[in-house]
């Protein structure tokens, strides 16, 4: 039995909290973020902070800004990736590097309010290992993003296992035992929301209102979101592959019945040649169906191919961490 089975945790033991912050061209947002988080935790005795920024191949002054801030704020660590690997890979890098007993992936644009982390820690002290931040509103997202997200969750939760909690993003608190479990997952195509759900653990929720971005602009446009949704479904369900067996059987059955009806018609009424339109319709319909089936096969085959290469998820150019030995 380990200490996690013992129920409520002591409130007086100090804990190290690692904030995992993926950043991609976020020069403007970083000062706001540091100031607000600093203010929230300034009065919290017993919570030690580690800011772990993952610079995901930014092309603006993000890295310089972070390193300048590090001069003043020694709790900042910066992991500089060799190019833009995407938020999922950046978060994976952050989870690998995090040293905290508690780990919270958080966006730098302050859409995940840092005050909520205090409520999360309170839940963790009650004995939960995962505390999810649940968005009460999606007003800060566009109509298209809200609707497509809604459809995605509905479809995904119908066909995939495990289910994804709705209105929950990457903003969550995890005990280090959860992070250890995540590190054990070997796949290189990482749909983090799904992986988080897959590892399980005792889970609680904290509700919050999602504000607008404090500065800069969103990095997720329609095409990127579509591909993200495809990644989610293909990572956690094989139903899109299997559906063709049943669709094919249904179409074969219909065409068999159609063949019988034609044969009967010929026997009763004699030979009849019209039917140009129905031939064209069925040829194009079946052609389309087959191409869709091949397309979906391709989605899975492509992912299997990339997975089979066993390439690393990300490459680190440099790890900027202020060590204690450097202290004068
Ligand atoms: N991000 C990243 N790599 C990317 C895209 C985004 O590290 O390729 C980071 C970004 O800097 C931000 C977080 O992921 O800290 C969330 O991005 P964004 O706010 O654009 O997403 P949204 O809130 O609009 O869904
Ligand atoms: Mg955002």
From TrEMBL:
This protein is called what? Glycosyltransferase family 2 protein
Q: Which organism is it from?
A: Pseudomonas flavocrustae
Positions of the Glycosyltransferase 2-like domain = 19-176
Keyword annotations from UniProtKB, A to Z: Cell inner membrane, Cell membrane, Glycosyltransferase, Membrane, Transferase, Transmembrane, Transmembrane helix
Q: Which InterPro entries match?
A: Glyco_trans_2-like, Glycosyltransferase_2, Nucleotide-diphossugar_trans
The protein's matches in SUPFAM superfamilies, at most eight in alphabetical order, are given as: Nucleotide-diphospho-sugar transferases (SSF53448)
Q: Where are the transmembrane segments?
A: 243-264, 276-301
* Location(s), subcellular: Membrane
Recorded hits in Pfam families, A to Z, give:
Glycos_transf_2
Q: How does it sit in the membrane?
A: Multi-pass membrane protein
Q: Which lineage is the organism of this entry classified under, starting from the top rank?
A: Bacteria, Pseudomonadati, Pseudomonadota, Gammaproteobacteria, Pseudomonadales
